[in-house]
Amino acid sequence: MMQKRTVLITGSTSGIGLSIATAFAQQGYNLILNGLEANGPQLAETMAAEFSINADFDPANMLDPAALRAMVSRAGEKFGGIDVLVNNAGIQYVSPIEEFPEDRWDAILGVNLTSAFHLTKAVWPFMKKQQFGRIINIASAHGLVASEYKSAYVAAKHGLIGFTKTIALEGAPCGITANAICPGYVKTALVDKQIADQARTHQLSEQDVVEKILLAKQALKQFIPAESIAALCLFLASESAATLTGAALPIDGGWTAQ
């Protein structure tokens, strides 16, 4: 790298986000971790020591726009700005539409979509000023296609892809790219919860949910490695991807090829 850049990754104290954070740390990026887990400060300290980088943790809640703006402001004071923003935080709820709780709808749209708007808006002035920025939105195969019982999640992820395309156009004159990654199923705590929810909804065993529902649509009958998503994030953040923008990139085992 020509210079040490700074990356902010939401929802990065576990799961996909932690894999992304680890990959960036290994490449020498300064790191802002975010999440609700209590181990956040210790995790940042450990990664800073292990990879000889500067790392910080911010517990900003994705449903609190003021906290999101404050997180970006604090990062600017400590690191001089944010070069790469990875909007990864996400939540899920599975329910038929007639039973779907309205507060769950609001929360899923808030965490999975609206937080990306607030954070992108907050980092934009710095990226525009330096004529360089990378916005990477972790969408989903459900941003490209739908499944039953996931109305809020599918709506939010479709919206995130539309948002990505819009800011790609706005960022093009400023050296700012924006892309969405659309994974299939990754074995994380979020997916474990989905498996349990689907088992309850369909009255199936959890193993049958994995085989007959989750991976049924993926030509490659295996979960997507979180490390593969992290590697794609690194590429999108690099100079090699300077002309790749406005894309929704499936990494879904062939799910959306059908």
TrEMBL record:
Q: Which biological process terms from the Gene Ontology are attached to this UniProt entry?
A: monocarboxylic acid metabolic process
Q: What class of enzyme is it?
A: oxidoreductase
* Stretches that traverse the bilayer: none
Reported EC number(s) for this entry are 1.1.1.30
Q: Which UniProt keywords apply?
A: Oxidoreductase
Q: Which residues form a coiled coil?
A: none
Q: Is Repeat found in the keyword set? A: no
Q: Name one Pfam family in it.
A: adh_short
What PANTHER family does its record include? 3-OXOACYL-(ACYL-CARRIER-PROTEIN) REDUCTASE, 3-OXOACYL-[ACYL-CARRIER-PROTEIN] REDUCTASE FABG
Q: Which family does it belong to?
A: Belongs to the short-chain dehydrogenases/reductases (SDR) family.
Q: What is this protein called?
A: 3-hydroxybutyrate dehydrogenase
Organism of origin is: Larkinella punicea
